[in-house]
Design goal:
This protein is α/β, with parallel strands linked by helices. It has helices at residues 34-42, 49-66, 71-79, 86-100, 105-127, 145-148, 155-163, 180-191, 204-209, 235-244, 276-279, 321-332, and strands at residues 7-10, 13-17, 28-31, 136-139, 169-173, 196-199, 215-218, 222-223, 229-232, 249-252, 280-281, 284-285, 298-301, 308-311, 314-317. The strands form 4 sheets. The chain has a 7-stranded mixed beta sheet, with helices on both faces. Bound molecules: 5-S-methyl-1-O-phosphono-5-thio-D-ribulose.
């Protein structure tokens, strides 16, 4: 178990740690309507693909308890919040099926949450040996406990390696525009006294090119059958620069992030968010009032830049990822869209 927990459910209310407020304040929001859960996901009060999936699973329970929605309508509300993270669709569909077939939605959501936490722990155990010798690690965005309920994806192997005695140092990309790296990843690492330094996003190439990074590890929002993956905007350029400099690049994710029905990354939907997130910093506008902005929240990185995927079943080399994804899809036994 990790010290940080992103959310918890006490019937009939979902509580979340409001990630928009971190690290300045610890604010817990109590969500008792499915509309509130949807809004929390849309505004990134709860965020990170696996955590969004678990929040949405409990959002379905909140809807069922409220008695105002059909399973289909509640699922529609939650699915409309963010398009990229596949976990959202898996979490919603897991509970929708239980509810629509007369089963117990809470039992389905609890089981889904447990599975995600166990898979993230397994990712930590599988990935930790990668960091026995790679001591200086770069990560992008936040793929820690906040993004996954517990453990993390990219941060799980780092946590487990540290507990096994590895001496690691983490380069933390600040991750504009919403600063998930400098606000959230740094907060998680600081709480566990894991040595780290925050760097401006545009500094990563410098550290990769000058031999100061031994490995890069990131999470993912959706991984296609050929291994192409979507993750926080800026991931693609880190992968290209890591490849150019011969630095291993790892992608860590639970099975709920693997979209077996999508052949490649070309068709992964990329969320475009509001321009204020770019024009403002910390709620204060710094750009000229006449300027406009664009704000894609994710980019897609081709599989050829990935050294290996850290999955709950172990480390899968890039060439073997297709087979691993198909097996995982069969084990999950349904496709959510
Ligand atoms: O927009 P966000 O903060 O939800 O984006 C999160 C990311 O891009 C993470 O890297 C990804 O979800 C993996 S989380 C384990």
């Amino acid at each position: 178990m990790t010290a940080v927990r992103a959310l918890w459910f006490r019937d009939p209310v979902l509580s979340i740690l409001d990630q928009r407020e971190l690290p300045r304040r610890t604010v817990v929001r109590r969500l008792s309507r499915v509309e509130d859960v949807a809004e929390a996901i849309r505004t990134l009060a709860v965020r990170g693909a696996p955590a969004i999936g678990v929040a949405a699973a409990y959002g379905m329970v909140v809807a069922e308890r409220g008695g105002r929605h059909t399973p289909e309508r509640a699922a529609g509300l939650l699915r409309a919040t963010r398009p990229t993270a596949y976990d959202l669709f898996v979490g919603v569909e897991t509970v929708r099926r239980a509810w629509a077939s007369g089963g117990d939605p809470l039992a389905a959501a609890d089981a889904y949450r447990t599975r995600i936490v166990e898979e993230c722990h397994a990712i930590g155990t599988a990935g930790a040996p990668l960091f026995a010798t790679a001591r200086r690690v770069l990560t992008h965005c936040n793929a820690g406990a906040l993004a996954t309920v517990e453990w993390g994806t990219a941060l799980a192997p780092i946590r487990v390696a540290r507990r096994n005695g590895a001496r690691l140092f983490v380069w933390v990309d600040e991750t504009r525009p919403l600063l998930q790296g400098s606000r959230l990843t740094a907060w998680e690492l600081a709480r566990e006294r894991i040595p780290h330094a925050i760097i401006a996003d545009n500094a990563a190439g410098h550290y990769l090119a000058t031999g100061q990074v031994d490995a890069v590890i990131v999470g993912a929002d959706r991984i296609a059958r050929n291994g192409d993956f979507a993750n926080k905007i800026g991931t693609y350029e880190k992968a290209v620069v890591a490849h150019e400099n011969g630095v291993p690049f790892y992608v860590a994710a639970p099975w709920s992030t693997f979209d077996a029905r999508r052949a490649s990354g070309a068709s992964i939907p990329v969320e475009e968010r509001g321009e204020d997130e770019v024009l403002e910093v910390g709620g204060r506008r710094l750009a000229p009032s006449a300027s406009r902005a664009r704000n894609p929240a994710f980019d897609v990185t081709p599989a050829k830049f990935v050294t290996a995927y850290v999955t709950p079943a172990g480390v899968v080399r890039q060439r073997a990822v297709g087979r691993a994804i198909s097996e995982a899809a069969r084990a999950r036994a349904f496709a959510p869209d």
